[in-house]
Amino acid sequence: MQKTINRREFLRGAGAASAMLLTPPFALLPSATRTAHAGAHSGPAPDVEILLTATKGEAPILSGRSTAVWTYRGKVLKGEAGSVQPISGSYLGPIIRVRKGQRVRIHFENALAEASNIHWHGLHVPDDMDGHPRHTAAPGKRYVYEFEIKDRAGTYWFHPHPHGRTGHQVYFGLAGLFIVSDEEEQAAQLPAGEYDLPLILQDRSFDKENRLVFLSDGQAGRGMRGGGMMGGGMMGGGMMGMMGNQKLPNGAAFPVFKVRVERREKAPGALPKRLSTIVRHRAEDAVNFRRPRVFNITMGMMQWGVNGRSFEMEGVADDEIVRLNTLEIWEFTNDASTGMMGMMAHPMHIHGLQFQILERGVKPALAEAVNSVSAGYVNEGWKDEVFLMPGERAKVLLAFKDFGGLFPYHCHMLEHGDTGLMRNYLVRA
Ligand SMILES: [Cu+2]
């Protein structure tokens, strides 16, 4: 699987980068095009209007035969042409680029043969704009998303979220970056253009005909490898990772991606000392400071769940209801995944907001596995996921503001979410 590639191939392989070099990010589109759907929403007119179609296609991923994929095609209907950057030759993308404060309207068109929708991962949007599994577009139908960009500059992303099919749809290519810029970022004058390469790492298996193979090693096996998030060698517990046809022992180092800078034509300029100022929530301000909510990841009857309950489309339990305009502490524990089912890590993702990690702990007997990866943890800053190794627990601080409604929280190994490791929480006004 290891091969050396030159810069041109790097840019193509990195996918996200090549289009960026070709397309000025904020070139102006002269005219605005309205669609029949415009005006369906109240409120101010959008600054950016995009048509995003999920469809089947082909992509030249490996040498030889191209690969059948599922992909998004994007088109700017109104606003700057650079709001949508296609990535030629990749199934990923397009990259959507917007600025904080902008109002965006995205017409999602489902040209697939099954229901789909779009979740804006990491973004703070109302619950009916969030891509909850209860809001999908049937084949041939549309769903119109409209929201204001309230989040700070950052690299967010979007992907489908229909229950039971999220892992499959994302595996075959439906995902793109959603990059937000703001004044704070622009003031930092970060290296841009060819010095700013969005990079996405994915874990995919192919058969001899270059076709993508989903769940080739079974539900648990694919889940272990995390649909792209985890290297095979990260897990403790005697599981074996795979890379190509090579078996790697746990903890083995293997090259994923090498970058060699051959020549620097011009200096990108000095980096600022500080990129951003992060104001931390105060744990003492949490309404449940003395008794945090605890969400235990559970496995019963071969079914994932949280506190013994699996996903219900509209279902929410009493201990999953929070109040708008409050700060809370939630604690996630990953104790279920230390037994017969093998050692499994779960990255827990909470929709609708960004949170802060307050503290982490681990069962002493399992500390070794955590220590093998914890140097890679970044606990500072704003999060949309918290990664939990087997036996690990984490407390997070969440502020519920602006939007009431029903939002999912779930394991972001998408096959786990699809098979029950997902629940709703309700923000009550
Ligand atoms: Cu999981």
Characterise this structure.
By secondary structure, the protein is mainly beta. It has two domains: 7-195, Sandwich (Immunoglobulin-like); 283-428, Immunoglobulin-like (Sandwich), CATH 2.60.40.420. 10% of the residues lie in helices and 31% in strands. It contains seven helices and 23 strands. It has helices spanning 7-14, 16-22, 166-171, 183-187, 218-225, 367-371, 414-418, and strands at 48-59, 67-78, 84-85, 95-99, 103-110, 119-121, 142-148, 154-159, 176-181, 205-206, 212-213, 241-243, 246-248, 293-300, 303-306, 321-323, 326-333, 346-350, 356-362, 385-388, 392-400, 405-411, 422-428. The protein is globular. The protein starts with 6 loop residues before the first helix and ends with a strand.
Provide the descriptors you would attach to this structure in a database record.
429 residues, Immunoglobulin-like, 10% helix, binds copper (II) ion, 5-stranded mixed β-sheet, globular, mainly beta
Task: Write a concise synopsis of the structure shown.
The protein has 429 residues and is mainly beta. 10% of the residues lie in helices and 31% in strands. The chain has a five-stranded mixed beta sheet. The chain has a five-stranded mixed beta sheet with strand order 15-14-17-21-19, with no helix packed on it. The chain has a five-stranded mixed beta sheet with strand order 16-23-22-18-20.
Structural class: mainly beta
Count of domain modules: 2
CATH homologous superfamily identity of the largest domain: Cupredoxins -  blue copper proteins
Number of strands: 23
| C-alpha end-to-end distance | 52 Å
What is the strand arrangement across the widest sheet?
3-4-9-8-6
